[in-house]
TrEMBL record, chains A, B, C, D:
Family annotation (InterPro entries): dGTPase-like, HD/PDEase_dom, HD_assoc_2, HD_domain
Record's protein name: HD domain-containing protein
Occurrences of domain HD (ranges): 55-173
SUPFAM superfamilies named among the record's database cross-references: HD-domain/PDEase-like
PROSITE patterns: HD
Native species: Marinicrinis sediminis
């Protein structure tokens, strides 16, 4: 423990409290500091100009919420909480995003990388984070990795970091709302924390807390439709992905780039080392794109220019996939001299990994259970009309993205 | 005018309203979009992790406040307001920061550049901004330049953008408070706007609005001491400045950099062109520093590593300049193998351009006048004890900055 | 119009703006001032101690929201808005609650009074309000009455004051949330106002505003379950109603009260005059109850003591009406020496007049329509899963209320 | 201790936490419940319509802040804090306002009562509060009385409840700001609490917390001038005081009131008993005034009507006392048929008991000391220019109050 508690001023939680030296040392590692240069919401800042916050801020927030939940469990002396796992939880909470690369959504789909795998490598390989964790005990880095990768035997520990009620989502809902300015529908974090109960290896919710969970899931629902799936954000992500695909294509076909900084080649070939991974951040990508606006390859130069200067693709909504309209648009794109592989995209937001709530188990995420005073558990959507209505529903409409100047008919 | 008003969701003002096509077009220029890649508070994010907002957000905010002030003047039909200057004011408000480079405070002192000069060049030379403004009228870009450079003949127009009560400060106080999380002492913007009056070529304050101005100046005072002068922020700025000085020194002495992207040389030699200026943003600087962490020059590599990974200089407070302690520290620095030119700094925050309030005229900024119903003007510090107490006071203490591991005795 | 706009500082809307002399004069009538002595949320302050705000504050808020909606319509020049009805709307908004008596919910059910009827009488009879309105035109008081009583021929005017999207609810959701402290799930009023459109005699919602309406209805839903139907509030209302019933019973049976202020008898007999109605407020009732704690009639004295000193009835939840448990409780109540007519109550919150949303027309309240750019209208629950799920659902469970010391088995 | 912590939803502190059965029982006493019927800010609701909150809410808030301060002391294990005094402090915090009568400021000056004396009597005599406290120990009520009356030997205990940095002020600044809507200049309570230190029998402030104290005192300063000394509030208080003076005059001269409820006579004669004191609340006063609007005595009827229906006195500002203008106004008042004893008042707000800060000891209230790491104490205004500027300054101007229709010349 630190001699004196340290605090960070945080706009969402007011203060983040650090009591353990390990946590303090982890925050000061190069790997954690790198997250300051990766935005939490990717390209959303082109839709909501305030959304410029980083994964570093969010990581502190997830840590702080986890700390508060555990503190609630300990203060109340709940016997189902394994008190010896406190530090493990806190470390996993802080480090859960450490493998995220720049503009992850777009880059992962173009280059076939995976941030969860990277997170594990950062914990396991020769990194500062690994060094700090190893001081706790030789197997501590491994344990943190298991928690983050959901293979740790005590499910309750995993579920604080990754479940339908995890600290990760609890923080990002509030933080993204705060920075985008869409912060009306936020929920009462303090109350949410108070109704959580450790129960036979899981975190469940006191029955009287049902409305608190409803409010929380409603916030999530609102954020999905107002922020995460916003078609302008999707447009900028599509351009970015197309741009990365072009870079990969050019690289694999021996194109001579004027500017091609280390370790970009290794990234494309998926043979990067963890030391080099440190160099990869959104500054690296944005500066490269800026230099590429002068490349001879017109597609690359144009896509970079579009992204950096917010000349985004237009979009049209299709209630149902309309093949005729897509064909028509493809013709227009070709006639205007664009390569449709890079300048046309059909998108359906529900492809995204975000989901509001599922009543059944998915990806190892168990549903939310209410726990009544007679000790019975009931899955929440059985009790709440509101939650049942949003549970597992595939919402969203198809959008067609294309350069300005085309007409959607 | 736009057919339909457009809005941006803004976390500080809730919404930014755009009614003029010129404003809309200016926002979409490459020069304005570049401000998304320059942080409003430079290196403050190392002290307050939430301070990651950009000059782009701030510029929209200054525009919005100016729009609200003018709208108040027009709604009330105040005859001292020159209604024909509305669009000019709005454009100047939006564009006032367009010349800011990356990490301006540090880079300007190291490379002898000047963001105000750059703003003027961006308005005058062959830029997209110049093109949009020229559509209003041939002399419109010139007029905007005059307003921003404070040479426009109608002082009231200038004073909305640059005075003790300008929209620039009104926005940054609120916005910086919001993002740092230090948002308790904020003031009532709506009330401030309501007590402003155009009066014989100046903006003055209704006498009954004195307490509103007091609250506003108190906010400023608090922000100076809690945020702008924070010694941790100063430490990161000092490292950055030293790093830029080292780059300049190496460049001028013919050092062969492994990584030296265009147009860095032109920047150091102060012969950059406005097209090239677009490339300069904080991504450019951060990525370069990241690559430089592998340079052979140890001083450069170390300073870059310190900055990017937040291994900042420690600091000690000296109530008065204490030459003996400085000499002692210099010896320690040398003994530890550091070059004191890069690893030791005496700093006094009041050197900074920020000031809370001055009762007399300075830099062409006139003081704040109260206007009573009998038509008399009185300078506000004559009436308010609080404001008198902070007016022109040189506060602050000296700090000594040095690498960790030294002792201040 | 007033020479200079007047403002009231309002904790919810920041400022309430008054531009018309009629509005100013109405606010200063005795009838409006009386609403300062009637709480907006009746007995909810016993559950949420902050809920001490009055119907006066709420009335100003409804006026302000109405003003903002109309101002949006006028600024955009929507042709379906009858601009000549502005003042009529504003007056009706301000005055819509003027007939509310003290603790309306409880007193109306005990004494068979009706606050809507009283509102009409206050507008029609010899009151200050009538006098101010008559200055506008001879038939103006009648018109205001028609708007409030929903018989005014132009439905759009009525619907601003009384519909599923009226200014009344828009204000109370925010205001009650603010004062109870349950203010997380509030909605974005500014956005709600911006998506409203006048359309062929109704107020409808721009299709792209669907999520704004969802957020608003979710707020309402949350407020119903967290605040309006709270069983502790219901308990205090039940005691109050029982107490009023006892007073009526005693009065009609010739009981000699030690304290029986004018015009209580007339109130019970429902033959009160509008001048006397001014005397009736929550001070009148609370003080009478306080004096009655010393009455000889034990039931009256006890119920008054329970109410004033918050010795509320306990309650138990029954998922379904359980006649056996009710009978059992009745026996216990009798054995403990209580009269079950006054000391036992089965309650079902959905009896209350509040409802979240109905997709069909009820009580003349039409549902909410979305309006798309092709001019088509669609009822919102057809489009929104969330809203469909809460539409018209009869939620709630039965509660049994009884004095402390009984056991529910 | 309670088996499970109980919480109250509070709009200012989000939640008030109750852990001790004694506290829970005290909250439920008749004496505490009575405070629900006494407004925190007296007649300020006539200036700020939101200011309708009660002393009950405030009392819970003072308790909660005290709880947080003590909890901070205990968590950090500061040895200068006498841990055995925790419950005593909490009780004193909760009960400190229990003797407040209705509209205390006005009634005390008219009837020569004293709420502090009443608080002591409520603790000492046969009350429910006394009964609950006695269960802790026989001398516990006496100790609570000593703390509130500032005679308890351990000054640190007293100073949490009554000093320049007491929990009383810390709560009311925030709460009054919240309800009036003047809530921009609020301070960071969490930070204030964190910089407090127990030190040799006093509460002092960590030197690095100076700016936190500045912000807090600035909030106080702002609240004084914007809220507490507002001339409209003063006008309503003056009318109320004149009204009470008239009641007293009439009573002592044998006037036969139509309405004169028990125990008003005893109150005027200052021979009331603590049981009867329970009957006295603002409902009692408001209802009596309402009945008195029909009294034959015209002065009494008129003053009651003015107060209840907000027909307040007008006011004019005099920079200095201007005897000529006062004489002139007196003549006008007389000519208009008013008795100047009741219809004319010269007022100077600094007479009020509120003060922002005093650098010396006054009324046993010691100044605020900063405590540096070398263990030295320094009075804060010696270090802070801002605080020095507001310390002990007698601000304010004279106002003259009179009925409408007079002219101030």
């Amino acid at each position: 423990m630190l001699e004196e508690e340290k605090v960070f001023k945080d706009p969402v939680h007011r203060y983040v409290h650090v009591q353990d030296e390990v946590i303090w040392d982890l925050i000061n590692t190069r790997e954690m500091q790198r997250l300051r240069r990766i935005r939490q919401l990717g390209t959303s800042f082109y839709t909501f100009h305030g959304a410029e916050h980083s994964r570093f801020s969010h990581s502190l927030g997830v840590y702080e919420i986890t700390r508060k939940i555990i503190s609630q469990f300990e203060r109340n002396g709940f016997s189902d909480w394994p008190t010896e796992e406190r530090l493990l939880c806190l470390c996993a909470a802080l480090l859960h995003d450490i493998g995220h690369g720049p503009f992850s959504h777009s880059i992962e789909s173009a280059f076939d990388t995976d941030h969860e795998e990277w997170t594990c490598r950062m914990l396991r390989e020769q990194t500062e984070v690994n060094q700090v964790l190893s001081k706790v005990s030789a197997d501590f880095p491994k344990k943190v990795e298991q928690v983050i990768c959901k293979t740790y035997p005590k499910e309750i520990v995993v579920s604080l970091i990754s479940s339908q009620l995890d600290a990760d989502r609890m923080d990002y809902i509030l933080r993204d709302a705060y920075h985008t300015g869409v912060n009306y529908g936020t929920y009462d974090l303090e109350r949410m924390i108070r109704v959580l109960r450790p129960h036979r290896g899981h975190v469940v919710v006191k029955e009287s807390g049902m409305h608190a969970v409803e409010a929380y899931l409603m916030s999530r629902y609102q954020m999905h439709w107002q922020v995460y799936f916003h078609p302008v954000t999707r447009s900028s992500e599509i351009i970015l992905r197309k741009m990365f695909e072009r870079v990969k294509y050019l690289y694999l076909n021996g194109y001579a780039f004027d500017f091609f900084p280390h370790p970009l080649g290794a990234l494309i070939e998926n043979r990067i080392e963890s030391k080099e991974y440190l160099l990869l951040d959104e500054s690296f990508m944005q500066m490269s794109m800026m230099q590429w606006t002068h490349e001879r390859d017109e597609i690359l130069a144009d896509l970079c220019d579009r992204f950096l200067h917010r000349r985004l693709f237009k979009y049209s909504t299709m209630e149902l996939l309309d093949e005729r309209k897509i064909r028509n648009m493809r013709q227009q794109v070709v006639q205007a001299g664009y390569d449709p592989q890079y300048y046309l995209e059909v998108d359906f937001p529900a492809d995204l990994s975000y989901d509001v709530y599922r009543a059944g188990e998915t990806d190892g995420k168990i549903p939310i259970y209410l726990w009544n005073d007679r000790g019975k558990l009931i899955e929440i959507s059985k009790k709440s009309d509101i939650i049942r209505s949003i549970s597992g529903v595939q919402m969203g409409t198809h959008h067609l993205y294309y350069p300005e100047g085309m007409s959607f008919i």
